[in-house]
Design brief:
- This protein has helices at about 1-30, 30-40, 40-50, 50-70, 80-100, 100-110, 120-140, 150-160, 170-185.
- The chain starts with a helix and ends in a 14-residue tail after the last helix.
- The longest helix has 27 residues, at about 1-30.
- With about 200 residues, the chain is mainly alpha-helical.
- It is about 70% helix and about 0% strand.
């Protein structure tokens, strides 16, 4: 029972920290604000996390792990790889729009820089998952000859992180669908005849 309560407290602290880091950034966040938001005493917070840096590390790590799990699940071997890549781009964009944990992980990685380590920078995580799908596209011959794997990964990640590029009067999902539809013909091999429309479109 005590173990269950400890896990619940830790989860509440991580959720509260993610929400506040997302809104205030690393420098603007205090441990007092997090403990108040989680309705947890400062003593309980310090039991689980020795410092703001340790708490930020934990948020970044959890953000990377959860997004990796969600995106990897979309790389179904039974689905053409470029279709899976499109699904992953859409899913990551949706996460960034709706999930404070994903946004907090990204914001902390940007603000804290290399000091937090590449294993806690979700951009490396996302690139690795996208790269796996692009390499599978190369293996199944759905990727156009001459399309460099890293360039395709760069384009996919740029689309997923598109929010700041979209005009305020445009629907985000509609913009992403249009952008993917424009990009896809430049990626797919002319000899490939499978269906590449993302399942979530």
């Amino acid at each position: 029972m005590r173990q269950v309560r400890a896990e619940e407290t830790r989860s509440a602290l991580l959720l509260a920290a993610a929400q506040i880091f997302d809104r205030e950034g690393y420098e603007g966040t205090t441990l007092a604000t997090i403990s108040d938001r989680a309705a947890v005493s400062k003593g309980a917070l310090s039991f689980h996390f020795s410092s703001k840096s340790a708490l930020a590390d934990a948020v970044q790590h959890l953000s990377c792990e959860r997004s990796r799990t969600g995106l990897t699940a979309l790389d179904d071997p039974g689905v053409p790889a470029l279709r899976a890549l499109g699904d992953m781009v859409r899913a990551l964009a949706d996460r960034l729009a709706a999930d404070p944990l994903t946004r907090a992980g990204l914001r902390l990685a940007r603000e804290r820089g290399p000091s937090s380590g590449p294993d806690m920078d979700c951009r490396f995580t996302w690139r690795a998952v996208f790269r796996q799908a692009v390499r599978r596209a190369r293996e199944e011959n759905s990727l156009r000859s001459g399309a460099a794997v890293e360039s395709v990964v760069d384009l996919a990640l740029a689309l997923a992180l598109h929010q700041e590029a979209v005009p305020a009067d445009r629907d985000q999902k509609e913009w992403l669908t249009d952008a993917w539809d424009l990009m896809l013909p430049a990626l797919v091999s002319p000899a490939f005849s499978g269906t590449l429309t993302p399942a979530c479109s």
